[in-house]
């Protein structure tokens, strides 16, 4: 098994006085942690009030829904935050091993066999994950958090050649400018980075968009252990392309489970509890519906709509303003049903650390840092993007540029799932790829966009 991160024992060097991170999601928190080793001061701008407890926040509307930290993401966070697993367990997260504790139910075949491949992670809610990481970063001496601070412009100088700061709006409506020689845009919507490029006369990146029009609904339920699934997390895959209906269950407490139902287009799961049960009964198997019959609701049903996956190819640009680093959803926003977003963000933060180390000893550390990071992040993202694009395109209504070899890739995917039932090596390979264990933080990899190698 390939380790998704490689420890670097070089001692980081301070390369600047002040860096600014826009956004305090997983990408922003992870990037801020990295920057504390390279800057005298790191300022995190976040438009929300950040809760001191594990509660969903307004800026993360999907926070009430299940989030699974993939094995590659956990390995990356462990690189950035040593012994983070102990913090997760202390916060109530549940250790799990992919293959053994994550059930995958395939229409017509049943559950993949339980096999432990040594891919470790934790089950927890998104607010718990953010809170644990935020506490670790807040404990660092050279970081400052500015909440209720909505970034409105990334500012540049010398005709856009370099970043000099961020203009933001405080909660009282006053506009403030904070200086910086490095700005990490982890805002998620890319308006600021794209606006910075456009205002400075730079070429804008090519954008790939895959229209999935996904709808999902989640409820928190108390479920007696006698009738709970024999997994910590599980998914019932859809009967595609005939139906997009699927379901997920994630244990987030002793007897507490998040139950997520998914559909596409107009076939979206409802928020009414009775109708939620009815929708679950139409899944390809009765596993989730049977569990819900014995479950007591502990929340209202929350809904979320995800219209399209977007990849902005900043890494293809020959020039970026010096000191501009787009990361996380700002760079690439994945379809959330595949659980890749948080883990890719953590891997990108590991990449950022390595690129900073590589440039720290140079006379002008920021001269090529932005373009180097973007080009290498492009290579890192390529694999996960292909893994989610292929199954999305099984549905005829999905919009976007279909890969030329789509039929072959879909067949390979179906064959891999079928063969994994009896072949442990194929099962291991499938799970290592799904959990981004083979998503090595790249050197300057070349990118061939004519081929998506998903299960080679």
Briefly, what is this?
The protein is an alpha/beta fold and 456 residues long. It is 29% helix and 24% strand.
Describe the fold and architecture.
With 456 residues, this protein is an alpha/beta fold. The protein has 11 helices and 19 strands. Strands 4, 5, 12, 13, 14, 15, 16, 17 and 19 form a 9-stranded mixed β-sheet that branches. A 5-stranded parallel β-sheet has the order 7-2-1-11-18. A hairpin with a 4-residue loop joins strand 8 (150-157) and strand 9 (162-169). Helix 1 packs parallel to helix 4 (126-138), helix 1 packs parallel to helix 8 and helix 8 runs antiparallel to helix 9. The model is unreliable at 1-11 and 442-456 (pLDDT under 50).
Q: Secondary-structure element order, as H and E? A: EHEHHEEEEHEEEEEHEEEEHHEEEEHHHH
- Share of residues in strands: 15-25%
Structural class designation: alpha/beta
Number of helices: 11
State the separation between the terminal residues, measured CA to CA: 15 Å
> How many distinct beta strands?
19
Runs in which pLDDT lies below 50 for 5 or more consecutive residues are: 1-11, 442-456
Overall, the morphology is globular
Biggest sheet overview: 9 strands, mixed
Task: Please compute the radius of gyration using only Cα atoms.
Answer: 22 Å
Mean pLDDT: 91
Which range best describes the helical content: under 10%, 10-25%, 25-40%, 40-55%, 55-70% or over 70%? 25-40%
